[in-house]
Amino acid sequence: MTKDELKQTVIDVARSKYQEDGDIEIDDETKFSIADPPDDGLYVQAWVWVSLHDMPDGTTNDDIKLLQEIHCARCGASLKDGRCPDETCPFSDCAQEDPAGWVGHPEREKTDG
Q1: Which residues contact 2 (CB under 8 A, 6 or more apart)?
Q2: Is 42 helix (H, G, I), strand (E, B) or coil?
Q3: Cβ contacts of residue 95 below 8 Å, gap of 6+?
């Protein structure tokens, strides 16, 4: 069995045993975690739905949006503290949460034409 075949087999087994559409879902490009040394199985990353109704009273959709990952407008890397962590990106020195953000950055003129 090839590596790709094995990955797909593990995903298929995990889906057949655990997946419940809308509650527990497993992506095609999921991650695996294997014990060292290997021990009769492995973990398969899955998405588990948490309803707003199960959250403490007062939790809103606006609260949940705080957890949304934000990406660099220039290179697509995940922002850290509002800045691009890629030092080779021209935006690494620019706070992207700043309203001027991309609009005021000198690199914009090079890409916007």
Answers
A1: none
A2: coil
A3: 82, 83, 101
Distances from the Cα of 15 to the Cα of 21, 26, 29, 75, angstroms: 10, 7, 13, 34
Q: Give CA–CA dist 26/12, Å, rounded.
A: 9
Query: By C-alpha distance, which of 48, 43, 44, 102 is closest to 70?
Result: 102
Q: Is 84 exposed, middle or buried (0-12, 13-18, 19+ CB in 10 A)?
A: buried
Give 80's strand partners: 83
Tokens describing residue 35:
């014990």
- pLDDT tens digits for range 30-48: 999 998 888 899 999 999 9
Tokens of 61: 């959709």
Taking the complete model, does pTM exceed 0.70, yes or no?
no
The lowest-confidence range among 3-7, 85-89, 102-106 is 102-106
Q: Is-contact 84 72, C-beta < 8 A?
A: yes
